[in-house]
């Protein structure tokens, strides 16, 4: 069985690289709840504004958030569609593994009969 998904290998790499960091996962969580300015996000962490900007840039590069100017602020908003596509990939892999386990179960059941 081949896993079909709407994501290229490069997109998958960027998404899971972005999600590999706890701060980026927290920024994503916060922006799923509601949009936030980069300044407001930076106030939430014990790191420099520039470091938070870099985390947001990684999330943006992965398509997990978008950033738009609003006056002097940059507003960060989560992109649930990208998260849904990543979930679809994980669901496809889970289905693949469930199929393998089912085949193993059937094989063991056949051995017990003989």
UniProtKB/TrEMBL annotation:
<dbReference type="InterPro" id="IPR011991">
    <property type="entry name" value="ArsR-like_HTH"/>
</dbReference>
<dbReference type="InterPro" id="IPR001845">
    <property type="entry name" value="HTH_ArsR_DNA-bd_dom"/>
</dbReference>
<dbReference type="InterPro" id="IPR036388">
    <property type="entry name" value="WH-like_DNA-bd_sf"/>
</dbReference>
<dbReference type="InterPro" id="IPR036390">
    <property type="entry name" value="WH_DNA-bd_sf"/>
</dbReference>
<feature type="domain" description="HTH arsR-type">
    <location>
        <begin position="4"/>
        <end position="98"/>
    </location>
</feature>
<dbReference type="Pfam" id="PF12840">
    <property type="entry name" value="HTH_20"/>
</dbReference>
<protein>
    <submittedName>
        <fullName>Metalloregulator ArsR/SmtB family transcription factor</fullName>
    </submittedName>
</protein>
